[in-house]
Amino acid sequence: MTQFSPQPIERPILEIKDLKTYFFLEKSTVRALDGVNLSLMAGSTLGVVGESGCGKSIMAMSVMRLIPSPPGKIIAGEINLYHKDKDEMVNIVALGSDSAEMRSIRGGQIAIVFQEPMTSLNPLRTVGDQIAEMVLIHNHISHKEAMDRALEMLTKVQINAPRQRLHEYPHQMSGGMRQRVMIALALANDPYILIADEPTTALDVTVQAQILDLMRKLQADFNSSIILITHNLGVVSQMAQKVAVMYLGKIVEYAETHELFHNPLHPYTVGLLNSVPVLGRKGKKMLVPIKGMVPTPDEIIPGCPFQPRCPRGMKICEEQQPLLIEHQPGHQAACWLYGE
Fold first, then answer.
1. 20-49, pLDDT tens digit by residue?
2. Which domains occur in the chain, in start order?
3. What share of the chain is helix, strand, coil (3-state, %, to 5)?
4. Structure pTM?
5. Tens digits of per-residue pLDDT, 285-318?
6. Could you give phi then psi for residue 80, rounded to 5 degrees?
């Protein structure tokens, strides 16, 4: 199996342009993604953060072309993916979600690790069979060769007694081991983009650290790019080179990780950072929660979507939506505080 060597890191390997994914329900339309723009550079990690319901997972499912239709549909925008066989960018929105080309891309060139392995792994099949099936879908090899690859992947993700685990079922494994199986399954065909959707949420702190260390090592081994979707800012600070902050289906801030943590521009980003406990924080500074709740995506908000919760809202915030604009080199924010 030939390992893909991505383009230089200066070039994007994935570009999302003005992506809109809506869900058309009987009584309302849910604008889950409402004009998302993002770039992922080859060999890098992009963190995507925000509260539950902001659209992070829908973005992942849109990129994988796994949006259930009906009621969901990508109604506008592009998802341009570097296609290693064609050596060019391909807009996968133009491909049928169940087309042969999209099935080849999904799992072969881009893969996903879901939050809860028990809902993603088949409880009636051994983990070895499940990994081998993924390999067989994308490669013309024998079942024995596919099982050898499954054993190799279980070894790479550092599962104890991998030959024994090959013949075990998901329920026979701990949460951390099942997550390792999910990573092995996702990386079985050497994809060059890995989407990790809350990969450590259900794990305790010690196992979480082990999984993050494993992902860093595997990223170096496979020379892959990662989109890390999480609500955990601590995880992002350890893993990502750049961070996109999402709110109500939009990107409201985008910057390099160090810059965003030390110089947040958008009031929502400031609120997220102020609500995170910091070990060793000097003084008696209290954590400050963000007031209110995230609106439902079917609510019509004429101005800035964060305006109803913003402590620095102005009149213009109630009337017009700000654009995501670069206010400092490499640092974008969608906020009227900085003008347009």
1. 999 999 888 999 999 999 999 988 999 999
2. 12-240 (3.40.50.300), 262-276+301-340 (no CATH)
3. 35, 25, 40
4. 0.89
5. 667 778 878 887 778 888 999 998 999 989 999 9
6. -95, 115
